[in-house]
From TrEMBL:
This is Transcription termination/antitermination protein NusA. It is found in: Cytoplasm. GO terms for biological process: DNA-templated transcription termination; transcription antitermination. CDD domains: KH-II_NusA_rpt1, KH-II_NusA_rpt2. GO terms for cellular component: cytosol. Residues 233-295, 304-377 form the K Homology domain. Keywords: Cytoplasm, RNA-binding, Transcription, Transcription antitermination, Transcription regulation, Transcription termination. It comes from Paenimyroides ummariense. PROSITE patterns: KH_TYPE_1 (PS50084). Participates in both transcription termination and antitermination. InterPro entries: KH_dom (IPR004087), KH_dom-like_a/b (IPR015946), KH_NusA_2nd (IPR058582), KH_sf_prok-type (IPR009019), NA-bd_OB-fold (IPR012340), NusA_N_sf (IPR036555), TF_NusA (IPR010213), TF_NusA_bacterial (IPR030842). One of its GO terms (molecular function) is DNA-binding transcription factor activity. Pfam families: KH_NusA_1st, KH_NusA_2nd, NusA_N.
């Protein structure tokens, strides 16, 4: 195999690995110099001439002519007799340049050359990939589903790069099919051995923030700023926004006419319910807005403990707490205050408790009334009692009480 033929056989890696020809030739020279060092002990007296345009190369060994019988280093010196076989008028002290053909390296060396080239190209490809995606951390990215596995979805981008979307980084309602385009945020890039592992997330608060930047020009332009984002992926989120321009309705701009701007974001996040709130430095007003849609009667704040007691009418309590306590949990995260809900004339209600009348679609109204009559108007207040005690204190059958307890228990198990 001559030099040009070898170059042609190696060139297949260029297209497969997306490496430009100049880079390939630089890698090739490095590989050849390593091979020359192993074969001849040094590559200092070798010239490797690579033509990236034609894709060919030449290797020349330069040696000094010495008198016959005085050769001490066969790699850097050549006897006069041997030099004159190349060119009859060579004299002692002159430099001889002789082309080295690949067969002179030996078959095993050529095989090693090929393997070394593969390794070098893989290292180059991995380094470039790592640098490329390291610069894209915290940016939104889209790729196509290649494989759906129990613990992760494997994505492939347009450059055939692999991206991993772990199960725990997926929205609970996500369902992916092969060939589908998936959007998420590049959360991290880690080197596993020599191979970069690119991790995507769809549950990150930053993903929601970046979607707002993409969909709402005023945020991209800096007219509206996002103060904070909190979310329960796939269920509910709260976004606090502000604007330095008093003439700009930050909330209205984010939501759009009839929800036109936010609709695409909601759909992308599996119909996640998004509350957009106007940020304020007034803590009481901020908490009030964060607990929307509940209407607050009064708020008392302890700045030392960062707790807030919120007084509401009984009819507003379930709105403040929300399904499974989601609304009050997100309001606490958004404002930085631990929020306790107090019903008018009652004690503090547990954060994740639910008004009994919220179950009116599963429990008959007259049954709920029986519990309310004895002062049990929330799910947890009912669950604190045994079946026998509830039967004794109400005008309900044991079977009815058991059915109610099963329904209430199921709520908190979910």
């Amino acid at each position: 195999m001559d030099n040009i033929a070898l170059i042609d056989s190696f060139s297949e890696f260029k297209d497969f690995k997306h490496i430009d020809r100049v880079t390939l030739m630089a890698i090739l020279e490095d590989v050849f110099r390593n091979a020359l060092k192993k074969r001849f002990g040094s590559d200092d007296n070798f010239d490797i001439i690579i033509n990236p345009d034609k894709g060919d190369m030449e290797i020349w060994r330069n040696r000094i002519v010495v008198a016959d019988g005085e050769v001490e280093d066969e790699n850097s010196e050549i006897s006069l007799k041997e030099a004159q076989k190349i060119e009859p008028d060579f004299e002692v002290g002159e430099e001889v340049s002789e082309e080295v053909k690949l067969f002179q390296l030996g078959r095993r060396a050529i095989l090693a050359l090929r393997q070394n080239l593969i390794t070098k190209i893989q290292e180059h490809d991995s380094t470039n990939l790592y640098k490329q995606f390291k610069d894209m951390v915290n940016e939104v990215y889209a790729a196509e589903v290649s494989h759906v596995r129990p613990k992760a979805v494997i994505l492939i981008d347009e450059n055939n790069k692999e991206i991993i979307l772990p199960k725990e980084k997926q929205i609970p309602s996500d369902y992916f099919k092969k060939g589908e385009t998936v959007k998420g945020i590049i959360e991290s890039v880690e080197l596993k051995g020599n191979k970069p592992q690119i991790i995507m997330s769809r549950t990150s608060e930053l993903f929601l923030e970046k979607l707002f930047e993409q969909e709402i020009p005023e945020i991209a332009d800096g007219i509206i700023t996002i103060h904070k984002v909190v979310r329960i992926p796939g269920e509910k989120a709260k976004v606090a926004v502000d604007s330095y321009n008093e003439n700009i309705d930050a909330v209205g701009a984010c939501v759009g006419v009839k929800g036109s701007r936010i609709h695409g974001i909601v759909r992308e996040l599996g119909n996640e319910n998004i509350d957009v709130i106007s940020y304020t430095n007034n803590a009481e007003l901020y908490i009030q807005r964060a607990l929307s849609p509940a209407r607050i009667n009064n708020i008392s704040i302890n700045e030392t403990t960062k707790r807030a007691n919120v007084l509401l009418d009984i009819s507003e309590v379930s709105k403040a707490i929300g399904k499974g306590g989601q609304n009050i949990k997100l309001a606490s995260l958004l404002t930085g205050y631990e929020i306790d809900v107090i019903r008018e004339g009652t004690q503090v209600l547990e954060e994740d408790d639910v008004e009994l009348r919220e179950f009116s679609d599963e429990i008959d109204a007259w049954v709920i009334d029986e519990f309310v009559k004895i002062g049990l108007d929330t799910a947890k207040s009912v669950l604190k009692h045994s079946v026998s005690e509830l039967v004794r204190r109400t005008d309900l059958e044991e079977e009815t009480v058991e059915d109610v307890l099963n329904i209430l228990n199921a709520e908190f198990e979910d």
